[in-house]
Specification:
alpha/beta, globular, binds beta-D-ribofuranose, nine-stranded mixed β-sheet, Inosine-uridine Nucleoside N-ribohydrolase, Chain A, binds calcium ion
């Protein structure tokens, strides 16, 4: 028997395949209607970091720490390092240990660092974070102690031993620890991949003076050293954080997760947002430091511009101001990726999804 000419064979093969293609299409459409939708927060490809978090907890720091510790597949946390800031060092260190206990992450070492800024008189923010440094919840002395040794030594030791450009440092408080480490051991920049820090203000104006944001104002000389380090820097300033605000619904979702961590975060926020809502007339409160963790996990939620940023450390009205050359008029090299916009709902979806994983 002669085989059919090739030109005729193809359409008839397609005809034979038609029922299979049709059934496949029906199955696909049905699945897309009945299958649970992947959470928006899971949609983007995951970024990963070998991470150290330097922090001064601080109500929003505690939320940032819980958020980060709930994301172990993306954030390989090497240690937490603490610094004086929102409250004195003994309390910021105790609060970091509380966050570790609440997240059930005894594997993460915590090193205490600088008890005061480099040069200026210490300032604290107990009016915002309460005298214990965490709003809305009872504090206690956690059983797991701090690690032996100082945070500055830990940073030098770890960054020296790290492969080139391998470690991300998230900074949620005054930048004293890294400034001390860079001064003693400038070679440690080699081990750093990126600094991601909450700090500064430009379009928004300051929150501790009309021109300055708290973390930079609390140690402007340290911020100067860090900004001049040559390490790639992303800053999440008040320009961003005052646009990523809580709402009663967003807090209710966290409270309704059904776990203790969700209730704790909601209790902290309910108390923490009151001051800023009243003072700035905002419809909700910022969760400053937690935006750093969201940026590490899902940078596509944010938009920034690479700009030159310097710190004013002269006595006067501009003390602690971040001077941002947004239009590039100074023709100086860009040293910061300055984040000015963010997807607020995307941020709260991601935060809520990650907090739901904790005990
Ligand atoms: C920053 O200052 C601190 O009070 C917060 O923890 C945050 O890091 C906001 O200006
Ligand atoms: Ca902080």
């Amino acid at each position: 028997m002669h085989s059919r000419p090739a030109a005729l064979a193809l359409p008839s093969r397609l005809a034979a395949l038609f029922p299979i293609l049709f059934l496949g299409l029906v199955a696909l459409l049905t699945a897309s209607f009945i299958a649970p939708k992947a959470h928006a927060a899971d949609a983007t490809p995951a970024t990963t970091h070998t991470l150290i978090i330097d922090t001064d907890p601080g109500a929003d720091d505690v939320i940032a720490l819980l958020f980060a510790m709930a994301s172990p597949e993306q954030l390989k946390i090497q240690a937490l390092t603490t610094v004086a800031g929102n409250v004195p060092l003994s309390k910021t260190s105790r609060n970091a240990r509380l966050a570790r206990e609440w997240a059930k992450r005894p594997d993460i070492a915590i090193y205490a660092g600088a008890p005061r800024p480099l040069l200026r008189t210490p300032i604290y923010a107990a009016d915002i974070h309460g005298s214990e440094g965490i709003t809305g919840v009872k504090v206690h002395e956690p059983s797991q102690p701090l690690a032996e040794g100082n945070a500055v030594d830990y940073l030098i030791r770890t960054l020296r031993a790290a492969p080139e450009k391998s470690v991300t440092l998230a900074m949620l408080g005054p930048e004293t620890n890294l400034a001390l480490a860079l001064t003693q051991a400038p070679d440690i920049t080699r081990g750093l991949r990126e600094l991601v820090l909450m700090g500064g203000a430009h379009f928004n104006g300051g929150n501790i003076t009309p021109t300055a944001e708290f973390n930079v104002f609390a140690d402007p000389h340290a911020a100067e050293i860090v900004l001049k380090s040559g390490v790639p820097i992303t800053m999440l300033p008040l320009d961003l954080t005052h646009k990523v605000l809580t709402s009663p619904e967003r807090i209710a979702k966290l409270r309704g997760l059904g776990n203790q961590a969700g209730r704790t975060v909601a209790d902290i926020l309910d108390a923490y947002v009151q001051h800023d809502m009243q003072y700035y007339g905002l419809p909700g409160g910022p969760v400053h430091d937690a935006t750093v963790v969201a940026y590490l996990l899902q940078p596509s939620l944010f938009k920034g511009r690479k700009v030159n940023v310097e710190v004013d450390s002269r006595e006067g009205l501009g003390f602690g101001q971040t001077v941002v050359d947004w239009y590039g008029g100074l023709k100086k090299p860009a040293n910061v990726n300055w984040i000015a916009e963010g997807d607020a709902q995307g941020f709260f979806d991601l935060l809520t999804q990650r907090i739901s994983r904790l005990p």
